[in-house]
Amino acid sequence: MTEYTTIRFERDERVGIVTLARPERRNAISPLMLTELEAAFVRADDDDRVHVVVLRGDGPSFCSGYDLAGTDYGPYGVDGEHGRSLSNAIDDDLWRVEQGQKRVLAIFDLHKPVVAQVQGYCVAGGTDLALMCDLVLAAEDARFGFPPVRTMGSPPHHLWTYLLGPQWAKRMLLTGDLLTGIDAARLGLVLDAVPAAELAAETIALARRIALVDHHLLAANKRQVNLALELMGARTMQRLAAEIDVRGHQARAMREFGRVAREQGMGAAVAARDQPFGDPVIRVRHAGGARENA
Q1: Beta-bridge mates of residue 194
Q2: DSSP class of residue 147?
Q3: Cα-Cα-Cα-Cα dihedral sign, residues 107, 98, 226, 130
Q4: CA separation (Å) from 75 to 3, 92, 93, 234, 247?
Q5: Which domains does the chain have, with CATH numbers?
Q6: Which of 129, 249, 281, 284 is deepest in the core (most CB within 10 A)?
Q7: What is the pTM for the complete model shown?
Q8: How far is CA 69 from CA 18, 33, 65, 80, 107, in A?
Q9: Which one-letter DSSP state was computed for residue 28?
Q10: Are the CB atoms for 152 and 246 separated by under 8 Å?
Q11: Which residues touch 59 (CB under 8 Å, ≥6 apart)?
């Protein structure tokens, strides 16, 4: 049996369950986690007993994003595994982003449907994982958003416009503000929101209902919808998202974030980024607009 360090994999009859298992870091995504996630999804895809996969996070939050602990914002040196330069040159930066992107896209490319179970924070890279899933169920008090757009670039994966439409995608990505699970469901970012205490039961019930269908038919119908997204440019948009994220890394704000992180620590850099915005949670009046943040 495959042993994992940062995730868990189990099977409940026809449901494969992949759990992000770094609760002490709010399931922050490390390079090892991305590698293990890709391996677990391939394992589930290769198992005829598995018809559907649930992706969930251990602890109070689904995922707090990419793990920035120990990140060096100066010259990066050389990657010992590949020998690829880890400088901050544009092409080296793009190479790094694309390596992670390929692993996350395993969710989109999986023949079997993936249901995300989201509680607590699903922010930054956490949204990269959740929004690649075929269906997302959220706790009503969950928080969705991409705060790094304030100083650090843009999402390296982009389904925001396809799920929210252009205006709400811009509302999210021009401010880095957050949506509650309830409002994410109202706007179409996720399938539905339920009380937190009911989330696990609702998710497994939906997964088991999907699992009643022959997995070959599930694959056909997932592929049909995903091909429709690809015809709307979604797959090409992922490649462009990586390019645009790297472009954003050249911003003066990113250099300043890195300076504060090096001199004062990552916590200070994040605090300096977010403090001017105050309360980040958007209060949605209706699907067509929002009032000011409280």
Answers
A1: 139
A2: G
A3: positive
A4: 34, 11, 11, 33, 17
A5: 7-291 (3.90.226.10)
A6: 129
A7: 0.92
A8: 24, 14, 11, 19, 25
A9: P
A10: no
A11: 23, 24, 26, 27, 120
User: What are the tens digits of pLDDT across the range 114-134?
Assistant: 999 999 999 999 999 999 999
Q: To which residue do tokens 């389904």 refer?
A: 159
Query: What token pair was written down for 231?
Result: 């015809």
- d(C-alpha 283, C-alpha 292), whole Å: 7
Beta bridge partners of 122: 63, 144
CB 44 within 8 A of CB 16: yes
pLDDT tens figures, 8-61: 999 999 999 999 999 999 999 999 999 999 999 999 999 999 999 999 999 999
Q: Which residue has the tokens 């399938």?
A: 191
Residues 6+ apart with CB under 8 A from 141: 180, 181, 182, 196
Would you say 61 and 27 are in contact if contact means Cβ atoms under 8 Å apart?
yes
What tokens does 70 get? 């120990």
